[in-house]
Amino acid sequence: MTVETESLSEAIDRKAIVTGLQVETKEEVFAKLAELLHQQGNVDSVSEFIDAIHEREAQGATGIGGHVAIPHGRSDTVKRNAIAIAILDHEIPWESLDDTGAKVVALFAVGADDEGSQQHLKLLSQFARKLAKDDVTQALLKAQTVDDVVEALNK
């Protein structure tokens, strides 16, 4: 059973945010963010969680456009729904709705039970509403520190 988080701010732990991440591939982003989620106790197995991310990635693009990607993995290894965020130091290739790569990646860890899935939809909706604001997306793209990311998401 997944431990429920009530709000977007509860699902995002400052310790699961990284800025200036130097990577070249989605694999490297997944590995870093999955490890951060594991370190915070949200995910039991990094490898099982990454497998779940790949299963989802095979179903369709997770780049929503504007250099933002919101991949997720749904798995029994997720103990608490959570979000890890990476601000990359440069854009990397990513399948997206507008054919742009990704510079901001928000990885959702989702419990496999119905409760986890329902909560995921709620958190995804809250996150999407934030990203619908141009000033939030622009602030995330320019974020240099964890404080910058938190401030952007609190707009």
TrEMBL record:
Keyword Phosphoprotein: yes
Gene3D superfamilies on file: Mannitol-specific EII, Chain A
Coiled-coil stretches: none
Domain PTS EIIA type-2 positions: 10-155
The entry's keywords: Phosphoprotein, Phosphotransferase system, Sugar transport, Transferase, Transport
Residues annotated as signal peptide: none
SUPFAM superfamilies: Phoshotransferase/anion transport protein (SSF55804)
Stored InterPro entries: PTrfase/Anion_transptr (IPR016152), PTS_EIIA_type-2_dom (IPR002178), PTS_IIA_fruc (IPR004715), PTS_SugarTrans_NitroReg (IPR051541)
Name the record gives this protein: PTS mannose transporter subunit IIAB
